[in-house]
Amino acid sequence: xxxxxxxxxxxxxxxxxxxxxxxxxxxxxxxxxxxxxxxxxxxxxxxxxxxxxxxxxxxxxxxxxxxxxxxxxxxxxxxxxxxxxxxxxxxxxxxxxxxxxxxxxxxxxxxxxxxxxxxxxxxxxxxxxxxxxxxxxxxxxxxxxxxxxxxxxxxxxxxxxxxxxxxxxxxxxxxxxxxxxxxxxxxxxxxxxxxxxxxxxxxxxxxxxxxxxxxxxxxxxxxxxxxxxxxxx
Amino acid sequence: xxxxxxxxxxxxxxxxxxxxxxxxxxxxxxxxxxxxxxxxxxxxxxxxxxxxxxxxxxxxxxxxxxxxxxxxxxxxxxxxxxxxxxxxxxxxxxxxxxxxxxxxxxxxxxxxxxxxxxxxxxxxxxxxxxxxxxxxxxxxxxxxxxxxxxxxxxxxxxxxxxxxxxxxxxxxxxxxxxxxxxxxxxxxxxxxxxxxxxxxxxxxxxxxxxxxxxxxxxxxxxxxxxxxxxxxxxxxxxxxxxxxxxxxxxxxxxxxxxxxxxxxxxxxxxxxxxxxxxxxxxxxxxxxxxxxxxxxxxxxxxxxxxxxxxxxxxxxxxxxxxxxxxxxxxxxxxxxxxxxxxxxxxxxxxxxxxxxxxxxxxxxxxxxxxxxxxxxxxxxxxxxxxxxxx
Lengths: 233, 390
Fold this sequence. Notes:
The structure holds two protein chains of two kinds. Chain A is an alpha/beta fold. In chain A, 35% of the residues lie in helices and 27% in strands. Chain A has a single domain (3-229), classed as P-loop containing nucleotide triphosphate hydrolases (Rossmann fold), CATH 3.40.50. Chain A has a ten-stranded mixed β-sheet, with helices on both faces. Chain B is built from twelve helices and 16 strands. Chain B has a 16-stranded mixed β-sheet that branches.
């Protein structure tokens, strides 16, 4: 069975590779570097010759690409697809590019779904890439516009697609934005969680469900584009 | 009748949707079903119809811009395309439209606006709901189903046609059943062929209570620009050596390649055709006997066959029939291409039929492939057979 790595060294050593078909939630407080973590996971995949699909609900697709540029991280654009749910809501006239396809809004789950499927098909059928990571950044924005049942139905379909395609799915959730019951409902759809907490201005990260036992809590810092983990507790 | 503007679909629906009736495009998640509604809308706007569009997942400007990808400009129909804006209030934006649903989570509010719009437009107009599933997500399954019944009745009273787009997310079984079987006069499914990923898309008529159409499925592709085209992934062109197969393929195709040596095909020809709402791939086999194993390889999964013969060479007809057998094509629709009709001694269609001893219903089309004469007629006839036209 194919395995995926996160590109975050101590966590990877602990997990020994994420199984294909897994869907994982990243949950943590605001300003804890979750975006950097998700970008690192994408970067690792592209470096491993895999494909990645990023659904962006908070910043335009161009800004997502710019992050990699700004941090001097070379990526293979051939392997990257971005579903941009922002630009069209701003009323800026734009068109799709080879890497960026735009849904009409974060409410337009039908459109988002079509664009994800198109990228998955393109990578699998046309480009012959057998490993893809789908990253949704973030579910919280989608939940601002649609209710929990609607988002659950959407995820039910797409976590299933991730499984059949042998991909992995990473879904970002802002802690504290939703009631705990909503988060518990969503968790049913996921195989594992990457959890982030903050104590006395220090950030910690751990994984659950990806190895036999939850990993230790690792203290980490965001240094430029990198996530640096210290030894665990 | 209101035509859908989708190739073949109007034929299956016996001309389109009768006034006062409803149609739903039932779109599987991840499949480009929206385009069906858009194509239907644009087709009717062009014909001068008055249309009301209910937008619930994007603002009216973005909604109109989406048509542009397909080469359709709906901004020119400002007077005949009316918008019910059920989106702007949701995100707290202002709307310039005449019909604004002030609370998109209140189904009563939606009904009020739909009723108002239906009364303002001339009888026999078209009402399109951009996304019934989004409305259902906001207003709840039960309330939405009840409202749909009311909308359908209102439309019937004024002879309007309502067209719905609905994405089949995993709703309650009873909701999906009622959508599939009882709520609408016609149901068109738009689905995906999936293995590891969705790699093909099809549509089919699940129900149409005014016609006796059985379920038929058609593969399609979405072209930008262009919209929905019926897709035929493989048509085979076979026939004896030097019958003119490559010329036939090159005449028919928008682009084509051949693997040739000394002027004859030794591996295969491939051509791609965009014609009259169809998009097709054609594959040509070599004609010489020593290549017969290749014919078998190429012919797998073909949907129809052109059997090309040189009309001046009846002695080759036996070989032609033999080739048809090699392709295992007997179960498939096929058309005989009586080529080289411009040469002296070319046999007439009737003479060829008696030489071949084949049933009357197998079409024989006279062609001159080098000058494209007859080739598109032949394509029309074969495609008609493949797509099951009556």
